[in-house]
Amino acid sequence: MKPIVREYLDTLSGLSPLSPQTRELLLNCISTRTISKGELLLEHGEVCKHIYYVDKGLMRIFYYKDKRDITEWFAGDKQFLFSVRSYFEETPSKLIIEALEDSEVILLSKEKQEVLIKTNLEVANLMIKAFSYSLILSQKRMESIQFESAKERYVSLMEQQPEIIHKAPLQYIASFLGITQETLSRIRSKI
Amino acid sequence: MKPIVREYLDTLSGLSPLSPQTRELLLNCISTRTISKGELLLEHGEVCKHIYYVDKGLMRIFYYKDKRDITEWFAGDKQFLFSVRSYFEETPSKLIIEALEDSEVILLSKEKQEVLIKTNLEVANLMIKAFSYSLILSQKRMESIQFESAKERYVSLMEQQPEIIHKAPLQYIASFLGITQETLSRIRSKI
DNA sequence: CATTCCATTTGACATTTGTCAAAAAAAGCA
DNA sequence: TGCTTTTTTTGACAAATGTCAAATGGAATG
């Protein structure tokens, strides 16, 4: 077993305890992918069939709104990501996932995981934890967008995910914050 | 068993199949509460220990930001709601839940539900579905807030939850949309 | 029915953010 | 290194939304 897969299973165990037997079962749901800067992990129109985990690197999840590219989320080292609506509703994804750096990603197959949760309590409890955690993140992001000014959101981002500020181009950060790049540039110059 | 509890169990079964035995077990996690207009279902600072289901009525979830009252969500007939972060993180809730009408609410105890999911696969799968569904809702709301104008958000609300427009005071709708009541009033007058 | 209390609307003006164009800076490539 | 392309910054102005104050309207109450 690759060391990064072992570490990944450890991470999952950290969410909810997993016995050696269950870890063995999960191995069968897991694959890894090396992806180069600029490549897509999930294309527009594709159904999202995995939950991704960025072992190392930086991914961006975005979509097009009126031909304009809008960043919805960044995921750096040791973070999970997936196209929520496509994954659950099994519909073509409007969201696109691209690598902003050469990255190493671990994929958890939805199909296989869904077979497991029907029979394995540990995996079921793991998924409950995973989705709960996603829900908290989504909630935090919602609160941030709804009632912070552009400047406050930028400051929050600097505090919470400083690596994004350094690694991602300004235009991506701007759309993530829900503002134009000009506005972000001006905010930046005043800090 | 009260008929509304039976219907509630049917609703849950609709999310993920539940055997008669499991329904019996869930009964022990369920309580009901009648709540009058203006009363609070969850107070500020209280830890949210239930997932609520509005059998009949209308609830509002809100918080105070700089002494200003901000509506985060409405839940009408047959909808679920809870204070996400307080529930999962078991922290004092910043969110307050109040009844905008006399309502009938069903409560699902977190404590008892968490015991069940450790041993019962059906309940575990039910919770997975429930949280997945919440995650989709949260995601949709996020998309709406992030990249629709105030006017678009108002139109979406009219389409998706028209009863809110009729039942809730304008000021609550305005903060839910992330705008001031004056702006909403002006948007309204132009439609 | 009159009065009081809120909720809503309107007006005038301020602030924030967006748009478009151009300049400057940085990054990529021959 | 020098050239080209892309990204970021800056300026001028427009549009959207916020703020504050006052006017209006409606509901509740004595």
UniProtKB/TrEMBL annotation, chains A, B:
Looking at the record, the residues that make up the Cyclic nucleotide-binding domain are: 14-134
SUPFAM superfamilies, per the entry? cAMP-binding domain-like
Highest rank taxon of the organism: Bacteria
Instruction: Read off the InterPro entries from this record.
Output: cNMP-bd_dom, cNMP-bd_dom_sf, RmlC-like_jellyroll
Q: What is this protein called?
A: Crp/Fnr family transcriptional regulator
The protein's organism comes out as Christiangramia crocea
